[in-house]
Each structure stands twice: as C-alpha cells, then as structure tokens.
Amino acid sequence: MTQAVSPEFLPWLKEAIPLTQHLGIENLYWQDKELIAELQLAPLVNDKGTGFGGGVAGLATLLGWCYVTLLLDARDQRCPVVVKESSNRFTAPLTGDFTLHCWCEEDGQPQSFLETFAKKGRGRINLKVEARQEGQLAFDYQGTYVALGN
Fold first, then answer.
1. Which domains does the chain have, with CATH numbers?
2. Which whole number is the average pLDDT over 84-88?
3. Would you say 119 and 147 are in contact if contact means Cβ atoms under 8 Å apart?
C-alpha cells in the first residue's frame, strides 16, 4: 500500500536543509514499511556521467534521517535526529533516475524505538537504504540514527 508523506514535509525539508533543494528529490512516500524517494540523476552526475558517490551517500543519510523524523512526527514528537554511524557499498553505477528505499530490517524495531524514546527521551534505530535503478541494486547503506529528545 502506497501512502503519501505529509504534503508539508518536503517544503519544510527544503527550507530546513537548503541543500535538499538541489538534490533532485521528486517524490517521497511510504510503501508498506519502506520510505521511498524518487530521484533525478542530473543534479548528482559526475565527470563520468554516473551518480556521484558522495551525493548518493548523502541522499541515503538524508533518507534515513527523514524516516526517523517522520516516525517521530507521526507521534507529534519532532526533535533533533542525528546519524551516529554509517557504512555504504556501491554495486553498480547509477546511469539514470533512481529510487532510494529505506526501512528497518529488524521486525518491531520502529515500535521499540518509539517506546524507548517516549520513556527515556532518547532512542536509537538501525536503518537500511538501497538505491535501485530499473529494479537493480546499485548501492546499499546501513546507518544508526539517534533521536536526542528536546
């Protein structure tokens, strides 16, 4: 089931983090338990005509941040969210527009993250992000995010 992200979120994001205005984010939506971003390659193209690695890694980091922020927004608990650690791997060049998919691999972790945050005012969650082009994996990322409370 596809569900749109709040229509206010992308304009807010582009104001809160001005760089996002230039990253080719066309659409952001939930599909089942995944947050998906549809992206243009053009703003990220490198001298070889493929996706610039730093830009793709930055977008993966951003999508994880959005995932956590939207989880907290759904509970009216917006607070500072930071990436604590991350790693990534490129498996194929990105040569055209692509999608990023973000999810939590551990069943129940989003709920336990929210419960811990409600109880302690802090929470940690591990997320996975993949870049796919025409259904093929081109990049994967794992990150740990921390919600710091108010």
1. 2-147 (3.10.129.10)
2. 97
3. no
**Six-digit token string for 34:** 């995944």
Q: Is residue 18 very low, low, confident or very high in pLDDT (cuts 50, 70, 90)?
A: very high
CB count in 10 Å sphere of residue 54:
10
Q: Is the C-alpha dihedral spanning 7, 11, 16, 19 positive or negative?
A: positive
Specify the pLDDT at position 107. Answer: 86
CB 145 within 8 A of CB 61: no
Query: What single DSSP character describes residue 32?
Result: T
Nearest Cα to 129, choosing from 92, 94, 86? 86
Q: Is the pTM of this model over 0.90?
A: yes
In three-state secondary structure terms, 105 is: coil
Name the burial class of residue 43, with classes exposed (0-12), middle (13-18) and buried (19+) by CB atoms within 10 angstroms of its CB.
middle
Average pLDDT estimate for 123-132: 97
- Taking the C-alpha atoms of residue 30 and residue 93, their distance in angstroms, rounded to an integer, is 25
| Residues 60, 29 contacting (CB under 8 angstroms) | no
Per-residue confidence band for 150, with pLDDT thresholds at 50, 70 and 90: low
